[in-house]
Design goal:
The chain is globular and about 80 Å long. The longest helix has 17 residues. It has 504 residues and is α/β, with parallel strands linked by helices. Helix content is 37%, strand content 19%. It is built from 17 helices and 20 strands. Strands 14-15-16-13-12-17-18 form a seven-stranded mixed beta sheet, with helices on both faces.
């Protein structure tokens, strides 16, 4: 008997999606649709419209009109704050419904979205609450004359304009909030494109914005794949800023496509994050379990900040591997609605084939396979499940140590001393996150400064709404979270005002 999720559709109340343009939901103008197949079973779950160039143009123009002529960019602070706080409350009220929709979207189990803060609806609500607090607190400066004379020099932060917010499929709750929270708080208008592999929860989140009192046209939605929908959005001349989370290849294309009109761009493009484990780690076993957890539990390694390279001191190498294998063996696959299921399938068959190919090439390159390495069978044979995989004795030049696998694959690399560990950790095109485990406070601070990564966790790692999150090098441009994210949706304006007798 194979796993089936068909009956879950009606139980969750899933509706086929639609485009949202100026407050009205409608199909694509040519009737085109995308059929979403669940990654755990291959079943057709639902459809969303495929917005073409004309549909995208209407959505962008609606956002442009709402920005140029509407009330939201000029609303008093208490208006924006009230809408954002009401919306955060609605997210919390509808958390169970949204978790169910996500389980139908991308197979992320309820266990993860219920119990792990970074994958929960609650973190999305907290992001909106956090950015509501910035609405009346980010201002400019008043500066004294530099060359003499009687005048005022002032700076202001204006909303940047129309934002194209493009979401990935793996973490719709958090990334929806990280993009729309600061954009709306700043007074921008938005055209949102969710991933075609995870649209249902996002569409419901957008419906709740209207209930919170957001005016029509401030947020518009276009659904569909990168071509034609995403391409039409990133090249539209009336878009002022693009915020994208996804692959390096698409990120590079967005930079090239946006160059003609010099759009502002924020990109988060993944990572190959290292964890450094020293002999004096407070608990080597816990370090192993935490590292493996980021790679196997919940999203099955399909997370930008998963710590997929474990750099382990030779003195505790075997101890780490033993604990890591035990943790990998505790991962359970199955129905995402069952709380006993702890990890998701890979999102589609293309990603399944890619991960299995990287595993095979890792074996061929000489890495030692500790566990996993194969596709799950039996009742799970129709799903995109790969057993949690750990490679030991990995050389940092191997493909599995350099490429973002985006699957449940951990590469364990031995090191002898601190300098070697830092050299290996920084020898990557990416620089999103890093972790280090040590009881030496001086070492912890020293290495946190030396590691080329946007976020460094010491004896643990987590994502918080009020902290900036983003990467060095090819992990992207800009930051999400905190004050830096709010300011990224504004333009800095200088106003010079002479003080004459006529004006006094």
């Amino acid at each position: 008997m194979t796993l089936s999720l068909g009956p879950r559709r009606d139980a969750v109340g899933l509706k086929d999606g639609a485009l949202l343009v100026d407050g009205k939901w409608r199909p694509a103008s040519d009737g085109a649709t995308w059929t979403h197949r669940h990654p755990a079973t291959g079943e057709a779950i639902g459809t969303v419209p495929v917005a073409n160039e004309s549909d995208v143009d209407e959505a962008v123009r609606a956002a442009r009109h709402a920005f140029d002529e509407g009330d939201w960019p000029r609303a008093r602070a208490h208006i924006r704050v009230g809408v954002l706080l009401r919306y955060a409350s609605l997210l919390r009220e509808h958390a169970e419904e949204l978790r169910g929709l996500q389980a139908l979207d991308n197979g992320v189990p309820l266990m993860f979205s219920t119990n792990i803060y970074a994958g929960s609806v609650e973190i999305a609500a907290d992001v909106f609450t956090h950015h509501a607090g910035w609405v009346d607190k980010v201002g400019g400066q008043t500066l004294p004359p530099y060359q003499g004379g009687d005048h005022l020099a002032m700076t202001f932060r204006d909303p940047i304009g129309v934002v194209a917010a493009i979401l990935p499929w793996n973490a719709p709750f958090l990334l929806f909030a990280q993009k729309l929270g600061p954009a709306l708080a700043a007074g921008c208008t938005v055209v949102l494109k969710p991933s075609e592999f995870a649209s249902f929860a996002v569409l419901r989140m957008v419906e709740l914005l209207s209930e919170a009192g957001l005016p029509d046209g401030v947020v518009n939605v276009v659904t569909g794949p990168g071509s034609p929908t995403g391409e039409a959005l990133i090249t539209h001349p009336l878009v002022d800023k693009i915020s994208f989370t996804g692959s390096r290849a698409v990120g590079r294309h967005i930079v090239e496509a946006s160059a003609g009109t010099l759009k502002r761009v924020s990109l988060e493009l993944g990572g190959k994050s290292p964890t450094l484990v020293f002999p004096d780690a407070p608990d080597v076993g816990m370090a192993a379990m935490t590292t493996v957890g980021t790679v196997t539990m919940g999203l099955s390694g399909q997370a930008c900040v998963a710590h997929t390279r474990a750099l382990v001191h030779r003195d505790v190498y075997d101890q780490f591997l033993g604990a890591a294998e035990t943790m990998a063996g505790a991962v359970t696959y199955g129905d995402p609605f069952e709380l006993s299921t702890t990890a998701s399938p890979l999102i589609n068959t293309r990603q399944l084939d890619r991960v299995l190919g990287l595993i095979e090439r890792g074996r061929a390159a000489g890495a030692r396979l500790v566990c996993g390495g194969e596709r799950a069978g039996g009742d799970l044979a129709e799903g995109n499940f790969v057993r949690p995989t750990i490679f030991a004795d990995v050389d940092n030049d191997m493909e599995i140590a350099r490429e973002e696998v985006f699957g449940p694959v951990l590469a364990v690399i031995p090191f002898t001393d601190e300098n070697e560990a830092v050299r290996i950790a920084n020898d990557t095109d990416y620089g999103l996150g890093a972790g280090l485990y040590t009881a030496d406070a001086k070492r912890a601070f020293r290495l946190a400064r030396r590691l080329r990564a946007g976020t460094v966790g010491i004896n643990g790692f987590q994502v918080e709404p009020h902290l900036p999150f983003g990467g060095f090098k090819q992990s992207g441009l800009g930051r999400e979270g905190g004050q830096s994210a709010f300011e990224a949706y504004t333009e800095l304006k200088t106003v010079l005002m002479p003080l004459t007798d006529e004006m006094m």
